[in-house]
Amino acid sequence: MRVDVRVTAEADELRSLHSWLREDIDVRRSSSLTLQEQPPAPGQMGGLVDVIQLVTDNGWSAASFVVALAAWKRTRPQDPRIEIRRGDTVIVLTQCTEDEIDRVVRALETPAEDEAPEA
Q1: Among residues 8, 39, 49, 70, which one has the fewest Cβ atoms lying within 10 Å of its Cβ?
Q2: pLDDT tens readout for residues 23-41
Q3: Residue 6: phi, psi to the nearest 5?
Q4: How far is 24 from 31, CA to CA, in rounded Å?
């Protein structure tokens, strides 16, 4: 499964989150994390890092991932908005309440249409 994570803040915040997730044993054990750049705009020297791409394996825990996101978010002075995209589904993590964390975990654990087994 592939999950993309965006942060509505400076690029340094996305790099901070990337480092945080790479240090989380549960996230690191069951997924591959990469920073992805958007193509450079005309006249721009290089692309901007704008998303963390997470590719998971069968042992991945959505709960561990979302708890790691919420823990990082709580350490930030600017309270960034975290957008999680899986296929056509976009989930936003804003307040990190228990209910919001549960909602995000359920959304990530629900198989996407293109991932559902054929009947």
Answers
A1: 39
A2: 999 898 889 999 887 666 6
A3: -120, 150
A4: 11
- What is the separation of C-alpha 98 from the centre of its chain, rounded to a whole number of angstroms? 18
Closest CA to 102 of 62, 43, 58: 62
List of residues 6+ apart from 117 with CB closer than 8 A: 111
pLDDT higher than threshold 90 for residue 71: yes
Nearest of 88, 29, 81, 80 to residue 54 by alpha carbon: 29
pTM for this entry: 0.82
Contact 4, 53 (CB under 8 A): yes
d(C-alpha 88, C-alpha 112), whole Å: 8
CB atoms within 10 A of CB 95: 12
8 Å CB contact between 62 and 109: yes
Q: Tokens for 86?
A: 């899986």
> What's the whole-number average pLDDT of the chain?
85
